[in-house]
Amino acid sequence: MAGLIQRAGLKVVVGLGKTGLSCVRYLKQMGYTVAVNDTRENPPNLAELRTEYPDVVVSLGHLDAELLLSAQEIVCSPGISINEPALAAARQHGIQVIGDIELFCRATTTPIVAITGSNAKSTVTTLVGLMAEAAGIVVGVGGNLGTPVLELLAQPADLYVLELSSFQLETTFSLQAAAATILNISEDHMDRYANMQEYHAAKQRIYRNCHYYVTNRQDLLTVPLLPEHIPNTSFGLNPPDLHQYGVIKEQGVSYLAKGAQKLMPTQEMGIFGEHNVANALAALALGEAVNIPMTAMLTTLRHFTGLPHRCQLVTKQQQVAWYNDSKGTNVGATLAAINGLGASISGQVILIAGGVGKGQDFRPLSPALVQYSKAVVLIGEDAQKIDAALSPQLVKYYASTLVDAVQQAHQLACAGDAVLLSPACASFDMFKHYEDRGHQFVAAVNALYSL
């Protein structure tokens, strides 16, 4: 039994969040000697670790250079940059720094659909997983979404669908995806990467050794530098060529289409907005690549109503709609939400935005806001930076709290308008995480109407 074998070499797990603890459990089950290093003095899951594995050495409060240099291999959580000096020194000494996705890929030969992108990863990953379920395929869904990927190995599966971040891809070497995609690329994590080229290179790693790939033909940065003989297709919001996915318009009706074949009217989808049409087309292309029947995929698109905190309708009161898009943590995501919502309502958008800007350029938001917005209510650490970057044509307000922002938006909104929380920023200046921000928004909106 693998769990009874004592394997040579020390594995040092860096970071004791949910992912880190899953790595410790997996490595101990596989018979490895494991140590843990975390920069925090009291990381989450510490008590759980010490109860389950009292023999595991734990070093806290800093990256322990001595411990890292004693490792045979380092398993790094995605929240920690591999360019930290102690990790860079270990790499220079020939010690490989990997992540949980790498451990997973080494452990399974089951086909993997691998999905990355600056935005929409979670929605497309969830859609492909639900499409597989609808077809009766035993599927495991995880990665950067929900379940730590190593926990998926506990149950048998015929297919895995993984959401992968650029951070996870940096430490992954053995992925051979049955189908891989970059959905889109826009500026993000500029507090972690030196420039867009570095971020782009991390995303492109998803295509290494893949068997099939899907690109966004309206975003050239998603196109891989791969040999042309690898099978592939594309999706886009324009009319598709043969074997491609896209949109056909006839007599004022828009259809999801493959080549010249109309698949279903977009208005029959359970999710709204052009960005979600693109997400549906990407999911269809990936699903087809791993032989999910079209009938099951289209049925899923009719019934799927979206994920929490992603352009989620909170309520519609007095002909004003309130949308929670707290997962909009970068400019590209917020831009997609503004365009998708703005084009679908009779009134205007009142945007609540702000937080930790991660070094982004907020200027690309201006054209859509000028076209669709009534006002922007700014919150958080980088409110002034966003204000300075946006067009002076826009009406802007400041709010000290999210409750204050909701109340100001309520005063500004008229029948037909929509209030959109899509911060274009990380949440950790004012909230525990984006889910906490979303929940607080929902609570503040409900309090307005005593719901």
Automatic annotation (TrEMBL):
One of its GO terms (molecular function) is ATP binding. It is found in: Cytoplasm. Pfam families: Mur_ligase_C (PF02875), Mur_ligase_M (PF08245), MurD-like_N (PF21799). One of its GO terms (cellular component) is cytoplasm. SUPFAM superfamilies: MurCD N-terminal domain (SSF51984), MurD-like peptide ligases, catalytic domain (SSF53623), MurD-like peptide ligases, peptide-binding domain (SSF53244). Its EC number is 6.3.2.9. One of its GO terms (biological process) is cell wall organization. Its main location: cytoplasm. It is an enzyme of class 6 (ligase). Coiled coil: none annotated. Pathway: Cell wall biogenesis; peptidoglycan biosynthesis. Residues 309-425 form the Mur ligase C-terminal domain. ATP binds at residues 117-123. Transmembrane segments: none annotated. Keywords: ATP-binding, Cell cycle, Cell division, Cell shape, Cell wall biogenesis/degradation, Cytoplasm, Ligase, Nucleotide-binding, Peptidoglycan synthesis. It catalyses: UDP-N-acetyl-alpha-D-muramoyl-L-alanine + D-glutamate + ATP = UDP-N-acetyl-alpha-D-muramoyl-L-alanyl-D-glutamate + ADP + phosphate + H(+). The keyword Cell division applies. Residues 115-286 form the Mur ligase central domain. PANTHER family: UDP-N-ACETYLMURAMOYLALANINE--D-GLUTAMATE LIGASE (PTHR43692:SF1). Belongs to the MurCDEF family. This is UDP-N-acetylmuramoylalanine--D-glutamate ligase. It comes from Agitococcus lubricus. The gene is murD.
